Structures are given as structure tokens and as C-alpha cells.
Target: Methyltransferase
Amino acid sequence: LSLPSLSSTSETESHSHLNQSFIHSFIQSHFLRFTYPFHLSPLSPPIPQHRRRRRPAAMSLARLMKERTFGLALFLFLFVFLVSITFFFLSSGKTVDLPYYFSLSDRSDVSADPDANDAPVPPGKDSPALKARKSNFPTPPALDIAWRPCEGVMAVDFIPCLDNTEAIKQLQSRRHMEHRERHCPKPAPLRCLVPLPNGYKRPLPWPKSRDMIWYDNVPHPKLVEYKKEQNWVRKEGDHFVFPGGGTQFKDGVSNYASFIQKTVPIIHWGRQIRVALDVGCGVASFGGYLLDKQVLTMSMAPKDEHEAQIQFALERGIPAILSVIGTQQLVFPDNAFDLIHCARCRVHWDADGGKPLLELNRVLRPGGFFVWSATPVYRDNQRDTKVWKENPSCYEKRPQNNPPLCDQNDQHSVSWYTPLRGCISRLPLDKEGKVIKWPVTWPYRLSRLPVSMPSELGVVEQYNADNRRWTALVSDTYLMKLNISWPSVRNIMDMNAGYGGFAAALIDLPYWVMNVVPVHEEDTLNIIYDRGLIGVYHDWCESFNTYPRTYDLLHSSFLFKRLSERCDLIDVGVEIDRIVRPGGYLLVFDTIEMINKLTAILKSLHWSVKIHQAQYLVAQKDLWRPTS
Model:
């Protein structure tokens, strides 16, 4: 009897006449935890009643061998033996860890739909097998930690790696925006919890949040006065209101975007142009309104005297990140964006031998566009016009090789604390030495093979399998069977995104996903951008470049085991608590060992925790904050 894959619901249903639903659900919910490569093939049809032979109730071993049923008896014996071993592990609370990976691509032992093999049940009711698996799992008690609130004038908006005042004081220079770059505390910062602003409320839902937010959630009125002539933001009663204006588009983004496309018709928003970078984004109205045109914009600005502009953007539900073009490369891969936009942004592109402009060239896809708009007065500014003249149309025909082309060995390295380079990035080539083509138009690029897909044997099959599993897991389990109020969700972060399958599975829903590729894992960020999604590199042993209370849901898939080998999970838990909004969620797909460790930490933070089928952790943050 050969036993094949239980992941196919259609195969299981085809054998319903053999009443195998209990065996299927039992093997899937228990045996698969040991990663046994079981496979079930179609069984022989039942023998007609008139052809069956009667057999005595008891047989000797010799009789069994003579009757040629010894194989069946051996199979039954082994089956009972495996059942006994399984119940032993379950009763003792032990589990065998599944192999680690950043996505589901090599986890064929874990079914995308845990209930795929249950017998049919009436709509709205659970099968007996599912009810058994939904039984309450014992969870560990909360860790005994005496939490304290963060203190100081910046406590409410504290970002550990950007607000390290002691490190900033010791800088030798601030000429190249060094004080706006990351300076993470070493060792890890003191474990404090960020307090809430007075009067904090649950953020307004999307799309209403694009046009207004609660004043008390981001109580920074300086921009109202500073940018009142540019139609950025107004205060009206208990709200900040965003009219959709900006430094260069007082009449709104729609008219401004239409003017750009009319000027350069090949810029076809939402088809040819899908992923964009807005440098010096202000309150991100440019990116917010381009969402209507199916353009996903990464809005970027530093934490500077323009109070909380990125916090405004994320509170509105618009993709954004704190970043600056200083002395280090941006945390994006080479050849990522279809278009880069800068409206009167205060960046000295020609500084330090033109390194800021060369950095834009690195992250801009070959054939992509750099849209730099400014007021007419800049036409006569010698420094600004020089930037355009210094951007040659053909590298090889330049009279001088300055700046030089980058070394081929420096290509495709992970951009994390990497100094800016004074060289021109080379064009990306495929395995045949040809320049990689532009992706197909949106939305087809989401499902087509990415143009930067590695050519190694088996990678394409792994990528396709990963997409199928995430599609099934998200639609059948995440959206339907977990205790998550999805209508309250807008900003999502995938802490280890892999190929972006989780984000792709949510593409038709009113969410956006920040795909994070950990710097110590396989670099797949180019693939994510090729698909028309956005993301960054990050090390989860450090804090993320975002304000507190900016994401509704953080998601991870088998991240924490390897992460725990490099840093303390308590510090990671503090960072998760900082990022997630009150009422927001942490969704973890992992082994029960890691889930139990996280549960103890989250309970100490007063999060509510529920475990689903011993492999999904759903934790929700509330308004609790420690007192002084």
C-alpha cells in the first residue's frame, strides 16, 4: 500500500467511499509534525460482497503467511506502532522541530489547508476532526518581567536606532546627514515600552484615513504652519485633513500625475510603471493618490525638523519608511524601482562626487525614469543645472572614465550598512550575458516568472510551489479561520517575506504589505520588486526604521528559531510591541516550541494570545502600558 501526498483535496475526496477521513486528518495533524514523506495513491476498489471469502477470527503466523496476508498484518502492526509513538509525544508535550526556511517553499509536509482532508460537513459547522484540533492548547505562563515606560521628551515617538542621542553626539561630522542615519545602541537598548499619546484612538479605516487622521494620534502641528501655503495638511477640529496638495502639486496629485504622463507618454501609470520611490515625500500624498492608478510607491523621508512626516504617511495607511541619502546605501536592492520621484526635495545630488545621484542610479531599473520637479527659480541655479549636465547618456563614449563603472563583484550584494559608492552600477545581465528585460506590464508581472529569477535547477519549481501554498494558506486559513478582524487591518509587514507569496495572496484586498528580507537569509528582494511589490532589507536583532504604532499586523513564517540564535527574543518582542498599533496583531506560523516562547513574552506585555492547530499564533495588542 503506497501512501501519497495529503495536500490535494481532490484526491482525498475521490476516496471518500473508503471512509478514510479519520486516517487522513489524523496523519495530517499528527504524523506530518515529524516530516514523514507520506504519499497516498488511489486504493483498489472494494471487492464485491459475493467474491469475499470468510476467514476465522484468529490466525496463526504460519496461516497468515500461507494465506498471503502477512504484508497486511505487518502494515497494521506498523500503523498501530506509529500511532502509539505519536500519542506518546503528544501526551508528553514534546514536538519534533520542522526544518527552518524563510517561506513555505520547502515545507511540503505542512498542508496549506489544515482541514483539506476532513469529511464534508454542513456549511458553517466544523467537522469532528477539526473540532478536536481546535481544542485549547496549554500555553505557558507570562514571563516575570517588570516592564517600565520609556522616558524623555521623545518617548512617545521613540525609534531606538534613530534616537540614539549619545552616539549622535560623538559623530565627527554631520555634513553628509550622518546624524539622520542609523546608530543602534550596543548592546541592545534598555527594555522600555513606548507610551501612548494622550487621547490616542484607533486609527480611522481606509480609505477614509487617506484624507484625514485623528489629531491626538500624531499631535505634531508644526507642518500645518510650515507648509500652509503648499496645501499639505490642515487641522480641522479633532482631525488632520490632507487636501492632496504638495510642494509641486498645489492643485492635487491627479492633475500632477496626468501632466507627467502627458509630458512623457511612455510613463503609463499602473501598467508600465508599477513600483515607484518618492524621495523627500512630505506627508506622502503623491504615493497615496497614485494607489488609485495601481502604482505602489515607497515614500521616503528622514526623521528631521519636518515633524513626523513619515508618521503622518503611515497613519494615513500609505506605504512609507524613514530613510536618508547620506553616507550609506538605501536598504533597497539594485535595479528595483520603475520610477523615482523628487519634488523639490532638499538633496544635494552632486555632493561628494555625485554619490547621491549614483545611488539613485543603482536602485532605478534600467529604462526607468527619474522625475525631478522644482519651481522655476531653480532653472537659473547653477548647482542644479550642473546635475543634469553631469548625467551622460552613454557611459562608454565619455571622454573620461569618471566616475568609473562599478566592479562586477560588487553587484547584487545585500545593501545593509553599505557605504555609498562613487561608481556607476552595471546593467543587470542574464545567464546568457544579455541585459535583463523590463518586466511585463502590471498586473501580469505579479504572476509571471520574475526577470531576476536565478537559473539554478529547481528554483522555478520551488517558486511556483511557494505561490500555490501561500494562496491556499491565506484564503483558507488566515482569512477564514483565525481570530483576526481583517476589516481593521491596513498596514501589514511580512517579517521574512521570501518570494513575496504572502503579499501576493493579499493583492486584491485593501491592504498593503512591507516585505522584509532579513539580511542573514537568502536575498530575494529583487524578485519581490520584479513582481510589482515593495520591501526592504533588515536585521531583526535591531529596531526597524519606523515610528511606534504604525502597523496593524506583523506576520512571520518560521523566522524565530534562527533569529533566537543571534539575539534575545525578548528584545524582538519589545520591538514588535513598539511597531504594532493597539488593537493590532502578530500572526506567527512556526513550531510549537517557538510559539510557546513567544507566548510567554507576549503575555508579559499583556497581549491576548490564541494558538490555532499548534502551528499558528495570533496575538493582539491592547492599550495597556506600564506605569512609572
